[in-house]
């Protein structure tokens, strides 16, 4: 892993809705490049992500969206041959340098993947993961678990079966369990990498509603290939291609006033020729 790199000007994400105009940032990315071996996947990318709202990251396959998310909470640190240059700050702290304990970083910046990642144990024990490091009483633990399951809109469906295996839940429920597990740690940012790509349309809508309601209090960064979904839930949209940001702005800007031909083609035809 390397940490050298230039620090070019920040690019502000244009705000949408009144709350975004002067919104403080949750994430500041400055001159960030990412590599696998000698292949440069992300090139000198700068971006500010506001501290609330949903930022949707769009772009063709292989463009580096997941790689970017995986560096935001340093999952890529464990990937062979992965290296980076530049700087990422979360709420003012340098992700690479100011978190000697990576678990502290991952508490603040949780991640939910395309495939729900539940452990082969009960629903309750899944929720306990991550809470074990805190010195909590049994009743405090139960309260946090109940509150998080409620926030994730899952409580009503599992309250009577917390000891059942998590794998007995439907995929949509498993995804909400993953979200509840992340919420139990009270994150300041949640990263979603195509969280609805593997689940049915009704469960997808439940997760979309959940994402929008969570985004009133925390920053959400969501990778999606689903343009209709982006139209429904995004406050801000970042269109990436070939490891670079092509265009970014508020949802209304991107869907009606996008200035770049590539952006317009991608959001109307879901095609990109770069
Ligand atoms: N561990 C790895 N080692 C080498 N190359 C990798 C590794 N992971 C990803 N890549 C390559 O990096 C590039 C970007 O991959 P990434 O998964 O970030 O793309 P993406 O934009 O998320 O694509 P998709 O929309 O298909 O998920 C791709 O060319 C991919 O093959
Ligand atoms: Mg991806």
In a nutshell, what does this entry contain?
The protein is an alpha/beta fold and 274 residues long. The chain has eleven helices and ten strands. Helices cover 34% and strands 25% of the residues.
Categorize the overall geometry.
Answer: globular
Could you name the ranges where pLDDT drops below 50 across 5 or more consecutive residues? 1-21
The radius of gyration over CA amounts to: 19 Å
Bound molecules: adenosine-5'-triphosphate, magnesium ion
CATH topology: Rossmann fold
**Strand order across the largest sheet:** 6-7-8-3-9-10
Helix content: 25-40%
User: End-to-end distance, in Å?
Assistant: 28 Å
Following the backbone from N to C, one meets helices and strands in this order, namely: HEEEHEEHEHHHHEHEHEEHH
Please tell me the total number of domains.
1
- Please identify which CATH superfamily we are dealing with: P-loop containing nucleotide triphosphate hydrolases
Number of strands: 10
Sheet with most strands: 6 strands, mixed
Mean pLDDT: 90
Helices and strands, with pairings:
Blueprint: H1 17-20, E1 25-36, E2 39-50, E3 53-58, H2 65-72, E4 82-90, E5 93-94, H3 102-108, E6 109-112, H4 123-128, H5 138-151, H6 155-158, H7 171-183, E7 189-193, H8 201-214, E8 219-223, H9 227-233, E9 236-241, E10 244-250, H10 251-257, H11 261-269
Parallel strand pairs: 3-8, 3-9, 6-7, 7-8
Antiparallel strand pairs: 1-2, 1-4, 4-5, 9-10
Magnesium ion (MG) binds at residues 65-66, 193.
């Amino acid at each position: 892993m390397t940490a050298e790199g230039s620090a070019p000007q920040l690019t502000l994400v244009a705000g949408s809705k009144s709350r975004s105009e002067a919104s403080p940032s949750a994430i500041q990315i400055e001159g960030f490049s990412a590599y696998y071996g000698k292949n440069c996947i992300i090139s000198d990318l700068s971006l500010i992500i506001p501290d609330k709202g949903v930022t949707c990251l769009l772009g063709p396959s292989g463009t580096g969206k997941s790689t970017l998310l995986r560096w935001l909470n340093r999952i890529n640190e464990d990937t062979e041959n992965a290296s980076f240059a530049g700087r990422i700050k979360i709420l003012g702290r340098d992700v690479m340098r100011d978190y000697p304990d990576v678990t502290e970083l991952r508490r603040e910046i949780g991640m939910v993947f395309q495939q729900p990642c539940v452990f082969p144990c009960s629903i309750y024990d899944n929720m306990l993961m991550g809470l074990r490091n805190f010195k909590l009483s049994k009743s405090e633990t139960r309260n946090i678990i109940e509150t998080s399951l409620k926030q994730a809109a899952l409580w009503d469906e599992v309250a009577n079966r917390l000891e059942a295996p998590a794998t007995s839940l439907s995929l949509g429920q498993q995804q909400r369990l993953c979200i509840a597990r992340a919420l139990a740690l009270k994150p300041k940012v949640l990263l979603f990498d195509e969280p609805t790509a593997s689940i049915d349309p009704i469960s997808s809508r439940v997760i979309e509603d959940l994402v929008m309601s969570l985004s009133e209090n925390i920053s959400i960064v969501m990778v999606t290939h689903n343009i209709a979904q982006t139209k429904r839930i995004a406050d801000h949209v970042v269109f990436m291609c070939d490891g670079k940001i092509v265009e970014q702005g508020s949802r209304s800007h991107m869907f009606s006033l996008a200035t770049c031909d590539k952006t317009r083609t991608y959001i109307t035809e879901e095609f990109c020729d770069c």
